[in-house]
Amino acid sequence: MPMPVKKLEGKKFGLLLVIQRAGSRNGALWMCLCECGRVTRAMGSALRNGSVASCGCANPRRLTHGLSQTATYSTWHNMIRRCMDPTHDSYSNYGGRGISIDTGWMDIIQFYADMGDRPFGHSIDRIDPNGNYTKANCRWATPSEQQRNKRL
Rounded to whole angstroms, how far apart are CA atoms 134 and 121? Predict the structure, then answer.
């Protein structure tokens, strides 16, 4: 009889925040958000025993995207947290009501390729406020544009 899977969502292991279950491969596989902003998968046993504590960013030889100090990165990171981290203050208005993120956008490089630099004074806006975060449904908007685009 298989062992029950331990609930790891919302728990932190090193630099990794466990977001959700990502299947199994000889044990439970978990999707995690690293503090550097990358999304990675890790085995539950490796998280619990400490053999995996980051996406690999702690390795100084690893190349990085160079976006982590930008406004675009901050927007992307907060979008991920709102939709995937049940401990985030706004989760109930996003992930908790079913708003999801295009799988390609789990990588900051793809998000940046689709959206470009965040203009000063703008934030990400879903054109259909009940729709998901996708290239076709998102734009950079001013606060006044955001105010006019609210769910009913």
Answer: 21
Nearest to 52 by CA among 37, 31, 72: 31
Residues in the chain with pLDDT < 70? 1-5, 58-65, 152
User: Residues 41-84: pLDDT tens digits?
Assistant: 888 888 888 888 888 776 654 446 677 788 999 999 999 999 98
At residue 1, the pLDDT reads: 45
89 and 128 both lie in a single domain = yes
Residues 57 and 75 reside in one and the same domain: no
Q: How many domains does the chain have?
A: 2
DSSP string, 22-37: EEESSSEEEEEEETTS
Residue range of the domain that includes 39: 1-64
Q: Which long-range contacts (CB under 8 A, 24 or more apart) does 85-93 make?
A: 85/10, 85/17, 85/19, 85/33, 86/9, 86/10, 87/10
Helix (H, G, I), strand (E, B) or coil at 56: coil
